[in-house]
Amino acid sequence: MNNFTISRTFDAPRDLVFKCWVEPQHFEKWGLSPAGCTNRLLHADVRPGGYYHVQQTGPDGKQIYCKFEFRQISPIDQLVFITSICDVNCEIVKNPVFPDWPRKLLTTVAFEDDGTGTKVTVLWEPVEASEAEVAFFMQHLSIGHAGWSQTFVRLQKTIEELEPVA
Q1: Mean pLDDT throughout 35-50?
Q2: Tens of pLDDT along 66-95?
Q3: CATH number of the domain where residue 113 is located
Q4: Which is the most buried residue in 36, 67, 108, 166, by most CB within 10 A?
């Protein structure tokens, strides 16, 4: 299979973890970006067919734009969206750092109670990708692992701000 999966358990109730993904004021704090980035939501329409348009600014001041187009929203259970790099006008473009990276990734996020908190599992699958893009994706799964690991640290901090650990 041509996909990538990563999971992490957060010490928080499922409704709170889900809220961090779908409420723009919380999403903007961590918003699927690696360590050291700041996010600015340029557009937030959280419904099937809606999307987030995010400006991410790295520690070096470089900016990248991302689009997260919602396909399915099942409150506190699952989110399905297309993840893409885009430009300031929200037009999908090649990844400037990894030009062979797929332009569209189907992103499925599952939220489950696991007895100690909420387990979040992310599944990434290239869609509408060339054979070369799929091959690059599969050969560089470490990019996804590193990025999602940093993103989960940022999400954890956002959760703690909303519900401080006792």
Answers
A1: 95
A2: 999 999 999 999 999 999 999 999 999 999
A3: 3.30.530.20
A4: 67
Q: Which two tokens stand for residue 31?
A: 């918003």
Token pair recorded at residue 132: 């070369």
Which stretch of DSSP H or E encloses residue 138? Answer: helix 131-139
- What is the Cα 84 distance to its own chain's centre? 10
The DSSP output letter for 127 is -
The pLDDT value given to residue 99: 94
3-class secondary-structure state, position 88: coil
Q: Which helix (H) or strand (E) holds 101?
A: none
Determine the structural domain holding residue 34 and report its residue range.
4-162
In angstroms, rounded to a whole number, what is the distance separating the alpha carbons of residues 61 and 64? 10
For residue 21, give the nearest of 64, 70, 55 by alpha carbon: 70
Q: Of how many residues is the chain composed?
A: 166
Question: Global pTM?
Answer: 0.94
Domain count along the chain: 1
Task: Report helix, strand or coil for 13.
Answer: coil
Please tell me the distance from the alpha carbon of residue 39 to that of residue 26, in angstroms, as a whole number: 11
| Dist. CA 21–CA 19, nearest whole Å | 5
pLDDT recorded at residue 164: 66
